[in-house]
Amino acid sequence: MSGEEYESDMDYTDSDCGDPGYDDYYNNQQWGSEADNDIDSEQNKKDPEYAIHECLKVEEVERLLNENVEELSNRLQITPSLAKVLLHAHEWALQDIILKYRNDASGLLVTSKIKSSHEPDSSIALRGARTGTCLVCVNTLSLERFAALTCGHTFCKDCWCMHFEVQIIQGISTGIGCMAQDCEVLVPEDFVLSLLTKLTMRERYQQFVFRDYVKSHPQLRFCPGPNCQIVVRSKELRAKKVICSSCKTPFCFRCGMDYHAPTDCGTIKKWLTKCADDSETANYICAHTKDCPKCHICIEKNGGCNHMQCYNCKHDFCWMCLGDWKAHGSEYYECSRYKENPNISRESVHAQAREALKKYLHYYERWENHSKSLKLEEQTLETIKSRIHKKVMHASGTWIDWQHLFEAASLLARCRYTLQYTYPYAYFMEAGPRKVLFEYQQAQLEAEIENLSWKIERAETTDRGDLENQKDIAEKRRVTLLKDFLEV
């Protein structure tokens, strides 16, 4: 992409067309980074970062959980309520629970029962044969107004109900405990529902319980998409990419955040926290414009490609390092690689702080640059779509004839997204042979991505065979890097 402007023989004038077939065709496509959202695509299934998964509705998840509850209840001869407590506490490891408690089924049977409200207990003060005093509200009531947990602590039903409502308002459900001091017994679901009187509270409690059950199940995760009710299930309990079939949101199955390969979940959290703390400094230092290294005219980046061509003197240079683009075939590794100061350990505290900021800015600027490039390339794709629309309407090829451009744009987005997340990985990586290899592969991927981006932006003057070849090279670089460094 050039600086201020780029002259091309492509006429980007929009043309209106009332052909519904065209609109239907393009509305059914997935453009840019959204092309990865086809969860059934062969491309995704071959991708080393992709996790095989299924997207379930709420009722399907409830059926799945209830099947486990029923099986455990039958195998250990316990109530479904206690079975839920055990499954939730042991992350739904059904077979592990059966093995652990097989010889203690009788004990579980006893603990699963709730004491009869007619039985006197140490938690109530008796006032004759049929009454008692609740030690919370200090009211004297008939024994029918009391309820007890398996721990033996008994309080009046009104106090229990109030206790539950307070906990539910605070968002607590499966973690509701006994009211007695220092008692660690959890309140089972059926006990709570038997005493809650307000319909809204019952519904909220059941929603919170369902949320807790899903969160505790290692094979289940809520889709983080806005207002999406889908729960994703995968047996690959690793930091891999899954895609919601409903809202098309891709995310990391392990942590639920935006997918971040090759960076692991813990590292990306540290990186995002650091960016949030230091982003204002980085944004202040990293200007949005740079001077052409040859004629020194001010240039604004208006495309995703880092291969820049000055609109004034036509000099080709790298946006990141301002080096001559012709040398990037051999020196691209030096552009993406951060050069550590070998004498930093002997420098003053202030010098070390400056060096730490310099290192952070090196990685942050490249991280932010690729994020911006993804957005700019979406705009480029829109202009290409408009131009292809016009060509097809004037019988200059069919929509299928131009499909390779959109496939190339999709691949470019996938590759650049991976490249963006290589920078947090490199920032926290310790120096050594492994980091040298990683930065070499990172640089190779970056070089091929920029070549692909350059050719896509000049789509009509790029030979289709050349573009297809560049796609293959870029994807092989991406897959190789992920296979070597993807931490799952």
Poorly predicted segments: 1-40, 105-123
Radius of gyration from CA coordinates: 31 Å
Succession of helices and strands:
HHEHHHHEEEEEHHHEEEEHEEEEHHHHHH
Helical content (DSSP H or I, runs of 4+): 40-55%
- Sheet-strand content, in percent, reads 5-15%
Number of helices: 16
GO molecular function: ubiquitin protein ligase activity; zinc ion binding
Main location: nucleus
InterPro entries: Ariadne, BRcat_RBR_TRIAD1, E3_UB_ligase_RBR, IBR_dom, Rcat_RBR_TRIAD1, TRIAD_supradom, Znf_RING, Znf_RING/FYVE/PHD
Subcellular location: Nucleus
Write a structural description.
The radius of gyration is 31 Å and the shape is elongated. 50% of the residues lie in helices and 9% in strands. The longest helix is centred in the C-terminal third of the chain and has 45 residues, at 349-393. It has 488 residues and is mainly α. It has helices at 20-27, 42-46, 58-76, 80-89, 94-101, 105-111, 157-169, 189-195, 199-216, 265-285, 328-336, 349-393, 403-420, 422-428, 433-457, 464-485, and strands at residues 54-56, 124-126, 131-134, 140-142, 146-148, 154-156, 220-222, 231-233, 241-243, 250-252, 289-291, 298-300, 307-309, 316-318. A hairpin with a 5-residue loop joins strand 3 and strand 4 (140-142). Residues 1-40 and 105-123 have low confidence and may be disordered. The strands form six sheets. It has a three-stranded antiparallel sheet with strand order 1-8-7. It has a three-stranded antiparallel sheet with strand order 2-3-4, with no helix packed on it. A two-stranded antiparallel sheet has the order 5-6. It has two domains: 20-36 and 262-485, Four Helix Bundle (Hemerythrin (Met), subunit A); 58-216, Zinc/RING finger domain, C3HC4 (zinc finger) (Herpes Virus-1, 2-Layer Sandwich).
